[in-house]
Amino acid sequence: MSARPIASATLSFGLVSVPIQLFSSSESRATISFNWLHRDCGSRLKQQYVCKKDEQVVERQDMVKGYEFGKGQFVTFTPEELKLLDEQAKEAIEITEFVPAEQVGRNLVNKVYYLGPDKGGARAYRLLSAALKETGLSAVARYSARGKQYLVLIRPEGEGLAMEQLYYADEVRPFSEVPVGETELKPEELTLAVQLIRQAATDSFDAARYEDEVRKRVMEQIERKIQGKEITAAPEEEPQTQIIDLMEALKQSLAKGDAKKEAATAPESSRKPRRKTAGGDA
After folding, report:
1. Is 91 helix (H, G, I), strand (E, B) or coil?
2. Any residues with CB less than 8 A from the CB of 64 and at least 6 apart, and which?
3. How far apart (Å, rounded) are the C-alpha atoms in residues 10 and 13?
4. Any long-range contacts for 42-49 (C-beta under 8 Å, 24+ apart)?
5. CA distance to 145, 146, 191, per residue, from 86 (Å)
6. CA–CA separation, 97 and 151 (whole Å)
7. φ and ψ at residue 261, rounded to 5 degrees
8. For labelling, which of 31, 48, 101, 275 has a CA lying 20 to 30 Å from the CA of 108?
9. Residue ranges, the chain, pLDDT below 50
């Protein structure tokens, strides 16, 4: 089934305008939602807002939005004033500069969208995609939508374009705030660590090799409940012995990886136990 666009816009660079459509690049299934129900009758519950001062339920028509500028101090806004504060949706993605994609840190990426050409924009769309591939550059742009202005990066994706919504610089913490401590590495430890990494290295990444095992287990247990069965506890894994010595931990990890690789590459006949028949060995 073809993807459905979630928005339309015009992508502009220089005097060239490209009508495009935005598509979601992913469909998150990680979160399994549970609803609060009334234990007595099973009806779904609804949220209510309660005033802490009066201890009364406040209805929607009696609410106003406010900004806390000091502890316990708020300035309030009417719906009309909030509309004036919103960034007007221009349905335009305005390219401001072109940069090497590797210059944009991955910690800046918030969301990813696919861009497709809208009616009459296929030629200019393919031209921009090809030009970005040829130059090895990506486009930095501004995009106004849903009352906000977003910083985005347009990059080639397959035969088309993708748009990465970025955080602004003041929204990202610098890694320098993370305490990493000071220590001295031994050359022998580094050598073993490199061997361990290369042992598990592959030539390419295939996301299809992975699945959310926790979500799969939860959905299986939900299905059991639907069928009237009891939820069963997941088998507990045996606790691994903690190895304090770093060198010893690296050596044992390498040995474990070698054993796993040998088992995977062993002939089929050596992996299956031989069955005995009534007349002797098969």
Report:
1. coil
2. 76, 77, 78
3. 10
4. none
5. 10, 8, 56
6. 12
7. -70, -40
8. 31
9. 276-282
User: Structure tokens of 41?
Assistant: 């009758």
Contact 261, 196 (CB under 8 A): no
pLDDT, tens digit, for every residue of 213-235? 878 888 888 888 788 877 777 66
> How far is residue 208's CA from residue 250's CA, in Å, rounded to a whole number?
29
Distance CA 253, CA 189 (A): 13
DSSP state of 203: S
Tokens encoding 250? 């690296």
pLDDT of residue 86: 66
pLDDT of the residue at 237: 66
CA dist., res. 13 & res. 9, Å (int): 13
Residue 251 half-sphere exposure toward CB, CA atoms < 13 A: 7
Predicted local confidence at residue 199, as pLDDT? 87
Gap between the terminal Cα atoms of the chain? 52
Burial class of residue 18, CB neighbours in 10 A (0-12, 13-18, 19+): buried
Q: Which CATH code for domain 7-27+87-171?
A: 2.40.290.10
Length of the chain: 282
Burial 21-30 (b: 16+ CB within 10 A, else e): bbbeeeeeee
What are 122's strand-pairing partners?
A: none
For residue 187, give both structure tokens: 């050359």
- Compute the distance between CA of residue 48 and CA of residue 44 in angstroms, rounded to an integer: 13
Instruction: Name the phi and psi angles at 16, rounded to 5.
Output: -90, 130
Structure tokens at 240: 């691994």
Taking phi over 0 as left and psi of -120 to 50 as alpha, with beta for the rest, 193 belongs to alpha
Provide, rounded to the nearest whole percent, the portion of the chain with pLDDT above 70. Answer: 85
CB burial of residue 156 (10 Å; 0-12, 13-18, 19+): buried
Give the pLDDT of residue 271.
53
